[in-house]
Design goal:
Order of helices and strands: EEEEHEHEHHHHH
Structural class: alpha/beta
Strand content: 15-25%
Strand order of the largest sheet: 1-2-4-3-5-6
Number of helices: 7
Shape: globular
Distance between the termini: 37 Å
Largest sheet: 6 strands, mixed
């Protein structure tokens, strides 16, 4: 798409990458990607709205093209909300529509609790609004799998060996049932998982709800 602007924004803990697609006259749409630990999509169909309004993506700290610090003290909901505030302020978004996907809906909702000025609408896409409830649901789904898969996932998470091939194979069986049942997977999904920051994704976000 023409009229694409990219850059970096200084936020608490590092620099985050952003991209603005399109220059339509409508109120900008700001996208909050899922995860935590995922990244923005280069092929997001929402980018087609750029003819109507600017569509803004940014990779949250630790994700995609943004800086990847290893300080786990950065992985808190308050800091992610502060990061969102810094992005909006730096880009001078006096009016904005928000669209959060999955974990991004939790981020959007928490930001709205601060009653920010300028948010014209919010869309919760595939919402995940409570971390403990989400984790409980995943554990219940896991009980439906063969015992060896259950044990591999549980043991790897307990021993912090989630970077092993054994864990990846077990999780792939889980993902194919509960994340995407299309076979084969879309190329974009495979690339997103390959680039997933597992330090962020597997961090115990019990303080997010």
């Amino acid at each position: 798409m023409k009229n694409v602007t990219e850059g970096f924004i200084a936020v608490a803990g590092g620099n985050v990458w952003y991209r603005i697609s399109g220059n339509g006259s409508g109120i900008p749409l700001l996208l909050l990607h899922g995860g935590p630990g995922m990244k923005s999509s280069d092929s997001d169909p929402l980018l087609q709205l750029g003819t109507d309004r600017p569509v803004i993506q940014y990779d949250q700290l630790g994700c995609g093209k943004s800086d990847r610090p290893t300080d786990t003290a950065l992985w808190t909901l308050d800091r992610y909300v502060e990061e969102l505030e810094q992005v909006i302020e730096t880009l001078k978004l006096e009016s904005v529509h928000l669209l959060g996907h999955s974990w991004g809906t939790m981020l959007a909702a928490s930001y709205l609790f601060k009653k920010p000025a300028g948010v014209r609408s919010v869309i919760f896409s595939g919402p995940a609004l409570n971390a403990q409830r989400w984790q409980q649901d995943q554990r219940n789904y896991l009980k439906q799998f063969p015992q060896d898969i259950q044990e591999t996932i549980t043991r790897s998470e307990r021993e912090q060996t989630t970077d092993s091939a054994e864990y990846e194979e077990a999780m792939m069986a889980y993902y194919k049932r509960h994340m995407c049942r299309v076979d084969p997977w879309p190329k974009e999904l495979g690339e997103a998982l390959k680039d997933l920051n597992y330090q962020v994704y597997n961090f115990p976000f019990v303080n997010l709800s």
